[in-house]
Amino acid sequence: MTAAIPTRIVPSVTPVDRTPRRVAREFHELLDSGAKLRPAGEAKDDPIGLLSSGYTPKYEISLFDSRFFLTNVRQNPALRFFVAYVVQRHPRTGRTEIHPRIFYKDLSLIWRAASHVIATDGDFWIGKGDVKVLARGGYEVTECVESTTDLPFEMQTALETLNRKTRHALNDEEALYLLLRSAPASRTAPYRDFTEPRRKAASDPRNLINGGRSIARFTRKNDPTSLQIVAGFEPDFAKGIVEVSELRSAMYGGKLQRFRILSRNRKVQYLFLAGPNHVWIIPPQATTTELSSFGVRTVDVVADEDLFVPGFEYHYFDENADASEHFSQIPEGFAGELCEHDNDRADASAWLDPIPVIREFRRKVLGANRKRGLSVKAFQG
After folding, report:
1. In angstroms, rounded to a whole number, what is the distance separating the alpha carbons of residues 308 and 270?
2. Cβ-proximal residues to 226 (8 Å cutoff; 6+ apart), any chain
3. Residue 341: which of 109, 56, 97, 37 has the closest Cα?
């Protein structure tokens, strides 16, 4: 029997201290030594052509057993992203493989890895990772589990640091098609290269968080005060704060703080974001060290998705449109004013602020920070 996936709690990594020229040289040396470059999109017919097309990496991040070589940040009309080369050893052959991926910044302010792409009439849709099938109104509905594309919390700060290095991102509307596998318009589910490592990890019960059961749920529909978290999986606001970092967002009013906080039992980690007017939680992650070729963890933490509504969330309502066209990811009755930076999003504070764990975070962490300044506690075992 193979061993369970190891776990480790580590500080956030930082970009490797090398010049862009040195990083590019080391990347070329990997290729010269026999590492295979394996793009999933149109570039698969000429992988090395990526480097002569301006996609030579300039930065490197290393986490666990994976290396990430990244270009300067790029931009298309919908996304801000890196071309990221994920370097790993094949689990069976031990040979070094390099998978070019798209790491993009979601509007919830988390960096993610795109699983695939759908191109339709000059537009595109980015694959949001694994899916689940739900019964709703007598029908089966397939929904994306977007958190399965969240990159590890331990590298979020490094990606944000590199993002800020580029003041004017290069416009690039080709990279998605070059690097991502193209899917038909009817397919939201990712392909085996994304799902198989997850299935393999989940097949061993020792890898499952809380036995694969939810660690948090609302006991009453549309009642944010009814949250219950399984004992041990609550955020440890007293001794579990691993680190605090800062980022900026015009949508959220300027400077925000990001708090990485361990659960009491140290089996999962949370990421709380706090801005001038909002607090929200990014879906928690395990502390497992296995990453797939997309750079994401292979082990999930299951919890009620309504706990992770961002400060501004999708909310489309047009009084002149048919009701069937209305769509909201904010629990019914809790959508506030529309976002001034994005009219397809509304303020979700009315839902978020009464949630007990967010109230506790405001009181114990933000309250303490205001009173005496927060000193980040180093993890001690």
Report:
1. 11
2. 218, 219, 220
3. 109
Residue type, 111: W
Distance CA 61, CA 281 (A): 25
For residue 230, tell me if it sits in a domain: yes
From the centroid of its chain, how far is CA 41? 21
Residues with Cβ within 8 Å of 309's Cβ and at least 6 positions away in sequence, in order, are: 280, 329, 330, 331, 348, 351, 352
- Domain annotation covers residue 4: no
The answer to whether residues 215 and 116 belong to one domain is no
Range of the domain at 282: 209-372
User: What is the residue type of 281?
Assistant: I
Burial class (CB in 10 A: 0-12, 13-18, 19+), 379: middle
Three-state SS string over 8-55 comes to CCCCCCCCCCCCHHHHHHHHHHHHHCCCEECCCCHHHHCCCHHHHCCC
User: What DSSP state is assigned to residue 222?
Assistant: T
Residue 226 has a CB neighbour count (10 Å cut-off) of: 14
CA dist., res. 299 & res. 208, Å (int): 7
pTM attached to this predicted model: 0.93
CB atoms within 10 A of CB 314: 17
User: Residue 1's pLDDT band (boundaries 50, 70, 90)?
Assistant: low
Q: Per-residue pLDDT tens for 329-358?
A: 899 999 989 989 888 899 999 999 999 999
